[in-house]
Amino acid sequence: MKYTDDQIADIGEEIIKELKTIFDPEIPVDIYELGLIYDVQISEEGEVLVIMTLTSPNCPVAESLPMEVEEKVRSVEGVKSAKIDLTFEPTWTKEMMSEEAKFELGML
């Protein structure tokens, strides 16, 4: 069964809600608002590709964070499979944070 554009949009919203429950261990902001999620692609079959980065290649959760993201994405109803593509291009910078994250960290 192929999902409609509306169903894909609904799945995307649920994925974002899940991503907002994952926090960077060193910064009290979720990874979505922190700007670590570059893209979420959802196919008509419910296959999800998340393109993400870390605050640095030496991040202490470099091994566990992508696995946590994959688990959370797979838990969303309608997701048939999830793959995480970890990239460091472009390099994450503080400018990638949302206004909400900057406010939370006292940067505004």
TrEMBL record:
This is FeS assembly SUF system protein. Residues 13-84 form the MIP18 family-like domain. The lineage of its organism: Bacteria, Pseudomonadati, Bacteroidota, Flavobacteriia, Flavobacteriales. PANTHER family: FE-S PROTEIN MATURATION AUXILIARY FACTOR YITW. It comes from the Bacteria. It holds the Pfam family FeS_assembly_P.
